[in-house]
Structures
1.
Amino acid sequence: RNPNGYCPDHSTGVKFVAAGNRADIDNSSLFEGKQVVIIESETCPYCREFRDKVLANYQGTIPVTSRLASQLKDLQIKSPTWATPTILFLENGVEVFGRQGYLDPDSFYHLLGSFKLGQAEAFNVAFNQGTDARYCRQYEIFKNTPDGVFIDKLSGAALFDTRDRFNSGSGWLSFTKAIDDSVTEHQDNSFGMSRVEIRAKVSGIHLGHVFADGPEGSPRYCINATVLEFKPRESG
């Protein structure tokens, strides 16, 4: 294993598609908005590790597609493609940026956050432990949604259920509990306070805090709306 976290194609037996078969790869979908392309090979251990530790839990809205280095026809790629894995972040078929070598979940989601969120307030909340303004626009949208679940804006993992939502009057989304095994708790002593921070288990992004003052003795998960997306519950 290469300590740099990638496999050079000459040492791993990367299978390049013959010139006559390259046209069989349809890249048309990669010209539709934001896309993530993983250049990999079947024999690369870092590619398998990336799939097992990162992609296996990814359910986000930005599509992720696997390609060989020889299957990038018509795409505008600027990163070197001689090592696997190489992760490319594309918009309308044009590379925005890329990274060569294995990325752990924290590194991948930080890059994905930059790619999807840009300079939006959601990025500051997710990665700099920021806080939404009280009664922010996204809160006003999410406080009265139909029945469904709130998902991680990056990984797509389900985090909170509308059945557990209540109006705390705080100006932030409030829930009595998180969906089982979806979040992690961390001691937060910032700003001279002792609080329990809540992060998404899959992506590691900051979600908010949990307090002990919920209804009827239950917890109150005080959650930033800008790092969530809403998914209506499927009928039936």
2.
Amino acid sequence: MHNSSWMSCKAVDNAEKEALLLQLQADADGPQRCCEIRERSLGQAVMLALLSLLLVLVGGWLASLPAAWQLRTAQLWFWLPGALLLGAGLMGLAAAEALRRRHGQRVLALTADTLQFANAPEPAPWVCFDGFELEQRHLSLGLVFSVMAGSRAPTLTPACFKSLAAPHAWPVAAGMRVRLWLFNPMLDGQRLDFQALTDLLYAYLNAAQARSTLGQLFPEVQRVGAGQ
């Protein structure tokens, strides 16, 4: 009776092991192509430029009214709001130019085994990350990658004001997360919506993690696959 129970448990364990192996092999056969996700921000740049130009025109008009009307008093009532509008308009034009330069730049480079950020000197293995989050905002999209415990976050050049003109990433949470934001992700000239971007990143990450787990739990299977 004891021997029969042991054989039954062994059969169940073997069946579960085989099912896990099949699942990992299926997940490991993920996307193999190399691709680049790029930014599309030209529309936002044009809208911001038009709004900023309007502020500059209104600000300049207000600032010129005291001279045009030959006012000797209450000039500050025109100069102060005019200067504020002019300053805001000029800053907006600078930001619009930054968004224009941002248009078409690479956000992420994906391969079957690696992920590279725009401001990373070299790609990082997918297995360095254990997940990601997408944050849908009104005008932009936030993307946060979680670094796996015990792994090292990718090296990134420091983000600064110039990063507005490029989709740079930066570390947060003591380097355990990597964050970036973008307007419209593009792949092969086509816009990726929220769900399409989620599915794309998940497919690469899940396949890389499956291959890593397969190599740890079933190294003999991985060696046979590599030999073939």
3.
Amino acid sequence: MEIKYSSLEQVIPQGQAFLVPLKNFFLADGSVLEPDFLKAGGYLQAEKNKFFLQDKLLVGSNFYLLFTEFVEKESFFWRKEAYSLAVITLSDKGYSGKREDESGPLVLSLLQNKMDFSWTRRYVLPDSRESLSYLLAHLIYFLKVDVIVTSGGTGVYPRDITPEICLKFVDKRLSGFEQAMLISSLQKTPHAMISRAVCGLAGESLLINLPGSVKAVKENLEAILPALPHTLKKFHGDPEECGKRP
């Protein structure tokens, strides 16, 4: 994964605050400062050539920002009008441009036909533990994206690492989602039993693993789509009783 280094002046516009995908800060002399940002929701703000980190003044000429190529800067003051959605395709060939990503657009289409989203992003990553870990941390702890769907890396190929990485972020497993997808897929092929897809709640995000093939993406996602709106409502604190009938 390509790592880019930039001075604060290059990445933080004056007078604005941004959530940024921080790995760490380091001083110009090479010594490292590693603040605990991921769960704190760290942000940087620039004002009159001064830089503030969590409201603490930094010396801009001595600090540099380390960030990864695939993450965009998002406004700290961004407000959601509806749910937010991020779709991540894990594919070495897709990332290198040797294969067109078809599963990501399909996930977006199926979900947008079912629910309203005010913010969507689609990413294509290699089957890399580091890349997926950094991006999930950014989406879950910084942007607090409502729905995060991954496609690919759920099987037993040596580079299939999606479930292992996602489990590090999941606070509560949604075994019903996982079982519904498995049952649906087993009706089509016995090969579905090797899927290790994980679904669960991570921070304030609903995290869903899907297989990589377009056919399997459609089958698995359609199995859980009917439950998604209700799941998100309850996850966000809807007090209405689940078994209540009109």
